[in-house]
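To: structure desk
From: M.T.
Subject: fold request, one chain
Message: Could you run this one when you get a chance? Sequence is below, nothing fancy, just the single chain.
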Amino acid sequence: MTHAISVVGGLSMKTKSESISITKVNLGICHTRTVLNSALLVSAVFTFMILSGCGTFQLARLPPVPSGPDAKLNVGKIVWIDLLTEDTGAASVFYEALFGWHTAPSKGDETYYVFSLDDNPLAGMSAADNTDSEVPESRWLLSLSVDDVDQSVAVVKEHGGKLLEGPVDDAGRGRMALVSDPGGAPLILLRAAGGDPADEKAAINTWFWADLFTRDAKAAEAFYQTLVGYQKKQLEAGKDHRYLVFEQNSKARAGIVELKWDDLKDNWMPYVMVDDIKSTINTARELGGNLILEKGDAAVLVDPTGAVFGIQAHR
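Reply: Done. Structure tokens follow.
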């Protein structure tokens, strides 16, 4: 099925609209004051001070990533997602009411929280102290599974990316490094201490997909192919965009949306599977969130603290 959707982008509170057509379930969206703003690119120092010197991850105390029964690695899989937010209390209330998640402080560090559903950990959360009230610093940050963090960091630097912090070892989480790809999109490279989550069908109100929004799909494609061995599948091309799917061993891992906008800052955005789009949107609005874009069975929302994420209806 092909969806024709309107994508909103901008910089420094300016917005513009374009119509693009994307196959499958994924939308192109970048929020004007979070995902697109270069001021929000990661500025990290140990202990992972994220987003312009804000939001602290106490790496020595992070809980482990949930692993599959065989504790193997799934290189190229998005294995964990963290929320950096200006207001952990408001974020907790929002996601608990919207998706039925439960929020609890980590056993090792009460400043780091874990979202879970039915006792299954889904994501982490840490505070991002806002030093600029005009620019929300809340965002979701993805962790990508790699076989060797140090070698992967070398690949990142050799192929146009940057090492922002690390590598460092955490007894619970594993070895990790914070990097940005050649387009500036930040992500964590992780070799999980206990192995990665197994490949399973996504349940309602859990993560199921992630897209990279970029001005240069060809460069991003080459970079991630070298980094984790992705193979590409182009689903559809339009006048102003391209959409690719990254696969590994015949498993779809992520998508690339290419948008030729000069003010677009490359970023990753995750998606949650929901039971009903309209109901989820209405609930999000009642809880203080905002709708950025809706088309068919997919939509993009921003939570009350400014973090952007996508939702997709269960099929």
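Reply (cont.): The domain at 2-313 is CATH 3.10.180.10 (2,3-Dihydroxybiphenyl 1,2-Dioxygenase; domain 1). Let me know if you need anything else for the meeting.
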